[in-house]
Write a structure and sequence with these properties.
This protein is 72% helix and 2% strand. A two-stranded antiparallel sheet has the order 1-4. It has a two-stranded antiparallel ribbon with strand order 2-3. A hairpin with a 2-residue loop joins strand 2 and strand 3. The N terminus is likely disordered.
Amino acid sequence: MTDTSSTSSGGRPAAAPGSGAPAGIMLTLGAILLILMIGFGVRSTFILSLAGYTCAFALFALSINLMLGGLGEVPLGQCIFFGVGAYGTAMLTIEAGVPFVAAVPVAMAASAVLAIGIGWLTLRLTGAYFSIVSWGLAGVMMVAAMNLEVTGGPLGLFGFPSLTVGPVDLTDPQSYFFFTAVILLLVLAFLARVRSSRFGHAIESIRQSRHLAQSVGVDVFRERLKMLVLSAPVAALAGALCLPYTQIVTPEVFSVVLTVDALLAVLIGGTGLLFGPVIGTAIFTILPQFLKLDPNVKVLVFSLAIILVMMLAPGGLHQIGRAVMARLTRGEGGR
């Protein structure tokens, strides 16, 4: 007999009744403890800056997981919103002299408006057609960024006057890490609420069977559009928060390679777990630095890792962890 209490019909792990809140609290406390240990225990400014960048890039992975894990779509054009966040913030701070803290919300709002237009064009398509069209739009944005004077052309924009949020100086590695880590936790908490909301249940029904969802009254196109509009500001926030680390924004932010990097992080961490993309991003960005991997070797190693994960644990690394824990639990019970 199939154990329906542990797995949803779509293959996504389902929490036991009443277990979600304690598990979420434990994860949050564990995350806060880890942030404090890294922030106050690590002395290397390089590692702190890299950890801050990892938190920022994890936001981009989360935005992709909203589309991939939520709707089952591969959003190859998600880098558009990341780029709008980075370029919007850079243009407002450098060209218009707007403070960083005010420029970021404006860039996020612009990405949401852009998502409405892009969603209207692309979300009537599904599968490979949606991915290819969104990829093409990202290419258009990249060409535009390379040829427009306001975006700095091929050289991009650099020379930020100030990257501060109130008294927090984001050019300081420790402050940058704490700030991005707190933002990441807040976004995770927000997405957890979204997942358990009526909208989240509608998205889950669409992911499992869009035709069945439509038959019970769910407006599939509207809910898919809402999910894209939700994912866009998260990606834009990631693009803006990467600026203190990169100190420059170039047309490469619209490259599909950026999206593929985040997609790999999501697949490694797993789409079913809210923390999955964060875990995958940490592995994808930090591990190569410690192993001192050449970029070409990094591509080879992670490509092989993705193949192995997809063959052995399609749900990501957390699926392996769950299997190990289940085996250990059975072993304890059999004694």
